[in-house]
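URGENT: need a sanity check before tomorrow's submission.

F., can you look over the non-specific serine/threonine protein kinase record below? I want to be sure the sequence and structure line up before it goes out.
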Amino acid sequence: MGKKGFVDKHNASGAEKQQKQVDIIEKLGGYDNLVSQGAEGRVFAVKFCGRDTIVKQRFKKTYRHPTLDTKLTRSRLGMEARSMMRARKLGVATPTLYYVDQQQSAIYMEKVPGKSLKELIREDSMSEKDMEDIGAQVGKAVAKMHDGGLIHGDLTTSNILVRDDDDRTVVIIDFGLASNSIIAEDKGVDLYVLERAITVTHSSQALFEHVMTAYRRA
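Structure tokens as predicted:
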């Protein structure tokens, strides 16, 4: 009994350690650096392995059974990470993926220095050449995804960044609603969402024309 009791106690201790999960976001001070929060999750800015990093964490759905919620969340998390990497293989600029934390339902990725297309449109500071260059990059990026059977699912101007570099590289982010499809209607929805997001002002309508010109030619 003594020996068996010792083994059982040892196993119980091991199980407790296993159940105690390390909250990496907390250790990195992420909860003190909230960038944004939405219905599906929240975004933090941290230093991860010495690099400026964005952490995107999905919320738990309390209305679902815990086991089902864990399964669905992990599946969605994996799909998002795979879609991001797939887009890169198709030649689309995306943030570098650093780490996927299944326990905390979080993805760690490069913090892209620059502004969102939404910010640039709101500032109304883009020249005609800027619109032509950026629009062409966006159109080519979307065409590459669609030709490769990848639908972004949330192609808004908030999810298109313009990197702060000499080339003003367009970077596509947030593949949380991405899916695999070669159906024309699905591609059309992506483009419709993008059109609605871009043409919020009269001055930005030319930008979408440049997007579509590049999309058709790609």
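My own read: Strands lie at 34-37, 41-48, 51-58, 97-101, 106-110, 114-116, 150-151, 160-163, 170-172, 179-180. The chain has two domains: 22-110, 114-217. If you see anything odd, call me.
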